[in-house]
Design brief:
It contains 5 helices and 8 strands; from the N terminus they run βααββαββββααβ. It is of the alpha+beta class and about 210 residues long.
């Protein structure tokens, strides 16, 4: 397996940084032509299940987006199985499998101060051995981190230091769950009697991406 890692910082509060890891609706707009193509955005629906400190969705027979990243995984853009996990404190993991080939990505948001956060991104794959593509992957990761940083820092300017996120769309459910999971985890650590896990066993969500 080959892996590449990159890191970057942004002037953004940690909660907002974590929101960006799990926001499915931003991908074709912020990362156009990388993970999705803006003009190909369409409604999707996924079933989410709970993890001990997070949630997961698994999709089978997914047609991969027509971008250079996914053509490297499958030149004919065959159907894939995708698994997406989010776990506290701020870790997003995604995996694509087509036959014996797979690629995965892990993104981690870490608070540095009350106003700054760090992003670490690591990707790995089990094909193209012997091809010197690490430099291209690293350059792509730097671009993706830069796109997120630009949008998040503009968002911080718009909200101001005391602003809060408006979480009223179905695609915002994951950000709501994240905040509920933080409270649930705090209750566990504090010894609260029988705290209830906030994530339902099965939840169908829809959004455009």
């Amino acid at each position: 397996m080959v892996s590449v890692r990159e890191s970057g910082e942004a002037k953004v509060r940690w909660d907002f940084a974590v929101d960006s890891l799990m926001d499915p609706a931003h991908v074709p707009f912020v990362h156009n032509n990388y993970f999705r193509r803006r003009e190909a955005a369409r409604e999707k629906e996924k079933v989410f299940t709970r993890l001990p400190l997070g949630f997961r969705t698994i999709s089978k027979n997914v047609l991969l987006p027509d971008t250079f990243i996914f053509r490297a995984l499958s030149p004919k853009l065959g159907a894939a199985t995708t698994t997406v996990d989010f776990v506290l404190p701020g870790i997003h993991m995604e995996r694509w499998e087509i036959g014996d080939r797979f690629a995965s990505v892990m993104l981690v948001a870490t608070p540095l101060t009350d106003e700054r956060s760090r992003f670490d991104i690591c990707v790995g794959w089990n094909f193209l051995h012997g091809f010197p593509v690490g430099w291209l992957v690293r350059r792509t990761l730097r671009t993706i981190l830069g796109q997120d940083r630009e949008v998040l820092e503009l968002q911080e300017q718009g909200f101001g230091s005391h602003g809060s996120m408006l979480l009223n769309l179905e695609s915002d459910t994951l950000a709501v769950w994240y905040r509920q999971l933080k409270k649930y985890h705090s209750d566990l650590l504090a010894g609260v009697h029988d705290p209830q896990h906030p994530i339902p066993e099965n939840t169908l969500l829809r959004w455009v991406t």
